[in-house]
Design a protein that fits this description.
heterodimer, A: OB fold (Dihydrolipoamide Acetyltransferase, E2P), 6-stranded antiparallel β-sheet, 3-stranded antiparallel β-sheet, 4 helices, 9 strands, B: 486 residues, alpha/beta, Aspartate Aminotransferase, domain 2, Aspartate Aminotransferase, domain 1, globular
């Protein structure tokens, strides 16, 4: 299972990459592996509000549908439209293919998330 | 099994027919029909001989798999045998030829059956009154939640907008709550697989309409702290909803009403042996405690003092959820099942279902990973093969089972385990059938080590081989026109 240094990770298997107050959010390699072939990604719209620890969309695979839980609060500024036609990109490279970009309203929420080492240990125990 | 995938339309030859109708003596009246009622084109019906039709449907039915053809250990579905006497009863002409708009005075026997099934289900579950109108389990859930909402609203208590659902619940629970306009709050499970009471306690306040539970739960485990949970939920003013999907192991032994549940639905197509899935429509009767009876949906069947029955409604009911009185043919089958077993024998179903599940579990737990090793009820969950070093997944095992003539168990549900295999044998299988299944499951575990490729490409002996589920989900071919185009 792959993790990337410098990202923040949530217990519900989303990653966050920050650029200033902008949070780029995707799902982890562990998540895509557990889900299997992803066939559909349900994403919010630009300007939607998202709240930390609340769902902002869903990913559907041949096995199941799982909610996407936002690690941070803020406003959606961009969604990855490429996923609408090619949801399998999340299986190919879950870290390259982000899902949404959020303008964070409370950047200190990042403190609650895990770093790569802690997240890898967390997955070990799953 | 021979592969057969023809459509009846593909067999059609112009002018061929297997019938001979008398001459239409009304032809000269065609002129009097208004144009809007006349066909512009001939109906596109297949033109086939009687033998074509017989072979076509016999070949198609040979490709079907059901409880009547083989073992069907589909967890959470209670695929028990549907006794043929049920069909005979439901086909009695006096019932079969009814019209739903007949006056009540002409269908007294039907209404009596409705009332007696209500009473039997009430006695079995410890409830006060049932509506038999809902058409399926999830429809029953929605009905039950509408009753819950109506109860709070009639008391003027508008704050109660949340329903607590365990993280192990069937997906229909949160879905039904959402459809009913209620907000879903999740309660966690303990590592032992039952509701975490310490996680539940802080959720309980005056915004809680109630809690939805299955007991035994999705992992087949009895919620041993149910009395404590019932007391806590009632103390905060909420109601307890019992999802009857897993009623089978408790049938005739334990009553949800005695556990403190206020509302429940039963899946007649699971616990009460009526056809299931593609075999026929379902039925999801809803029972309530006495203080909620007035909120049961309309129409209601009432037995009057003189012994006659009438169909009525009342204003405080939680609306109307069906055109008429449910899937009546299904209700008759459940009624026949209960009467055929009788009070004594109904009690044997649950313990035997429990024994069968535990037997399979114990015989296989050295080859398959058993995450929660305890006495289960009617079903249990493995988390894939014990030896996962081969990379063989639960999907591969399930596909391989088809080669040996078994229906696959439920897989990848519940979501608590990544390689979930959920097995429910029911009480209607013999020890020989269970032993046959066990030996094949052990054989497959061995194959996973010795011939993993056989499993990765399974099934090999079914009419259709391994399907490309990803493409099927992304580019589905849903009708003949799509197929012809592709």
């Amino acid at each position: 299972m792959k993790t990337i240094e410098g990202l923040y990770y949530s217990e519900s298997h989303e990653w966050v990459k920050t650029e200033g107050d902008m949070a780029i959010i995707g799902i982890t390699d562990y998540a895509q592996h557990a889900m299997g072939d992803i066939v559909y990604v349900d994403m919010p719209e630009v300007d939607d509000e998202v709240n930390a620890e609340e769902e902002f969309g869903a990913v559907e695979s041949v096995k199941a549908a799982s909610d996407l839980i936002s690690p941070v609060s803020g406003t959606v500024v961009e969604v990855n439209e490429a996923l609408e036609d090619e949801s399998g990109l999340l299986n190919q490279d879950p870290y390259e293919n982000w899902i949404i970009k959020v303008q964070m309203s409370q950047p200190d929420e990042l403190d609650k998330l895990m770093n790569a080492t802690d997240y890898a240990a967390f997955c070990e125990n799953q | 099994m021979k592969y057969y995938d023809k459509l009846i339309f593909e067999l059609s030859k112009e002018g061929r027919q297997g019938f001979s109708l008398p001459q239409n003596s009304w032809n000269h009246h065609l002129e009097e029909l208004p144009d809007m009622l006349k066909r512009e084109k001939k109906a596109a019906l297949p033109e086939v001989s009687e033998l074509d039709v017989v072979r076509h449907y016999t070949n198609l039915s040979n490709m079907n798999f059901g409880v009547d053809t083989g073992f069907y250990p589909l967890g959470s579905c209670t695929m028990k045998y549907n006794p043929k006497i049920n069909e005979e009863i439901a086909a009695l002409p006096g019932f079969r030829n009814l019209h739903p708009l007949q006056p009540a005075s002409t269908v007294q026997g039907v209404l009596q059956l409705y009332d007696e099934l209500d009473r039997a289900l009430s006695a079995i579950t410890g409830m006060s009154k049932f509506t038999l109108n809902p058409f399926a389990g999830a429809h029953g859930e929605l009905t039950g939640l509408m009753i819950m909402r109506q109860y709070h609203m009639q008391r003027g208590d508008w704050k109660r907008t949340k329903v607590i659902v365990p993280d192990s619940a069937h997906g229909t629970n949160p879905a039904s709550a959402a459809v009913c306009g209620l907000e879903v709050v999740e309660v966690k499970s303990t590592p032992q697989g039952t509701i975490d009471v310490d996680d539940l306690r802080p959720l309980l306040d005056d915004t809680i309409a109630g809690i939805m539970m299955t007991n035994p739960n999705t992992l087949g485990l009895f919620e041993t702290r149910i009395l404590e949970i019932a007391e806590m939920v009632h103390a905060c003013g909420g109601l307890l909803y019992y999802d009857g999907a897993n009623m089978n192991p408790l049938l005739g032994v334990v009553r949800p009403g005695d556990m403190g549940f206020d509302i429940l639905h039963l899946n007649l197509h699971k616990t009460f042996s009526t056809p299931h899935g593609g075999g026929g429509p379902g039925a999801g009767p809803v029972g309530v405690a006495a203080h909620l009876a007035e909120y049961l949906p309309n129409p209601k069947v009432i037995r009057q003092a003189d012994g006659t029955y009438t169909v009525t409604g009342n204003e405080t009911a939680a609306g109307r959820i069906s055109g008429f009185m449910g899937n009546f043919g299904v209700l008759m089958r459940a009624y026949a099942y209960i009467l055929r077993l009788g009070r004594q024998n109904v009690r044997m179903a649950g313990p035997l279902a429990t024994l069968n599940a535990n037997y399979i579990k114990e015989e296989l737990k050295d080859c398959y990973k058993l995450p929660i090793d305890t006495c289960c009820k009617h079903e249990f969950v493995f988390d894939g093969l014990a030896d996962q070093s081969t990379g063989i997944t639960t999907l591969d095992v399930a596909k391989r089972l088809l080669d040996y003539g078994f229906h696959a168990p439920t897989i990848y549900f519940p979501l608590l385990f990544h390689q979930a295999i959920m097995i429910e044998p029911t009480e209607t299988e013999s020890k020989e059938t269970l032993d046959g299944f066990i030996s094949i499951m052990r054989h497959i575990a061995q194959e996973a080590i010795e011939h993993p490729e056989e499993l990765r490409t399974a099934p090999h002996l079914t009419p259709v081989r391994r399907l490309d589920e990803t493409t099927a989900a992304k580019q589905p071919v849903l009708c003949y026109a799509d197929l012809a185009r592709s």
